[in-house]
Amino acid sequence: MSNPVIETEEHRALREAVAVLGKRYGREYFARVVAEGAHTDELWAEAAKLGYLGVNLPEEYGGGGGGIVELSLVLEELGAAGCPLLMLVVSPAICGTVIARFGTEEQKRAWLPGLADGSRKMAFGITEPDAGSNSHRITTTARKDGGDWVLNGRKVFISGVDIADATLIVGRTEDARTGRLKPCLFIVPRETPGFGRSPIAMELAAPEKQFELTLDEVRLPAEALVGDEDAGLLQLFAGLNPERIMTAAFALGMGRYALGRALDYARTRQVWKEPIGAHQALAHPLAQAHIELELARLMMQKAAHLYDAGDDMGAGEAANMAKYAAAEAAVHAVDQAVHTLGGNGLTQEYGLASMVTAARVARIAPVSREMILNFISHQSLGLPKSY
User: Which of 77, 148, 280, 345 lies at a 20 to 30 A Cα distance from 25?
Assistant: First the structure.
């Protein structure tokens, strides 16, 4: 796949280095880990040792001093090799970014070095049973009790809680001046009393498990609050925009892997006189999938550059567009790859069938494509809301 002209020499070198790492593990490693119900610990540890996990975090806390541009590149290349690390979306991208931007000095020193070197992980808890796309309906509450905070509520579809040292929980505090509930972020260590988790049975084959969380009178010290109690949505979207960008990277890597498998097959599989890739009925859809992936990547890079430059408003629009475009491109690429291989596309040998389900995740999470279209229609196009 060609390198975009907007990438620097350093970015191209990083992309190539991560690709080498990914190829050493690849889809066979990923499939074996899933089959064994294990985790991608070996790949995570080696990526950490090479400095890839914390490439976006500040140098003074053990990171690489880069940004979401670099971290999205890492995830895309690992995905293109068939072994994406979902926790890259959550731990360094969302939680690491929020703590780096808004955390106290003590929180930064306590968490960022571990997130950067891979020795610690954080999960992110925002989605609730009755508050999915509408984060304004979050009912997990945080009340002050003396010098402590006490949290109560439920979360669903929270990734990797079992392997995370803590979860960054989005709760709501009551504003005494207005009576309105507003979002705040809290670091909740895994073994905190009252913080329960139960796995959600999923058809999706992935190393990272999904959980429902319960917070029953979870008592936290004052220093568990990240940032300013009055910052509200500003801090929340500081994590959600990187999440969308990284989801785009995840989808792009998946689409590239599927397209690569289809191209290898189309170049060598011969039914009549020529390899099947010579037939336009197969060649043109694969070419279209390639174009869609390249276009989505450009929007992802735009979003990452805007975010790293501090343009939160511009990054919000671009991040949503990138996530939408990459998800659609990935679904199309995977579907066309399976179709190109025919019956072989559904075998374990080629490893594409499981990606049919996985590719659709990017259309659904962390925000549905319909909600992105709502966002673009009223934020970018100035159309009235229907809700």
Answer: 345
| CA 120 to centroid of chain Cα atoms | 17
User: 3-class SS at 23?
Assistant: helix
d(CA 107, CA 112): 8
3-class secondary-structure state, position 8 = coil
Distance CA 331, CA 215 (A): 36
Calpha distance 369→374 (Å, rounded): 9
User: Does residue 160 sit in helix, strand or coil?
Assistant: coil
Single pTM value for the model:
0.94
**Sign of dihedral through CA atoms 264, 268, 273, 274?**
positive
- Report the amino acid identity of residue 288: Q
CB neighbours of residue 260 within 10 Å: 16
The pLDDT value given to residue 183: 80
Q: 353-364 and 312-341 helices cross at what angle (nearest 10)?
A: 160
**How do residues 303-313 score in pLDDT, each as one tens digit?**
999 999 999 88
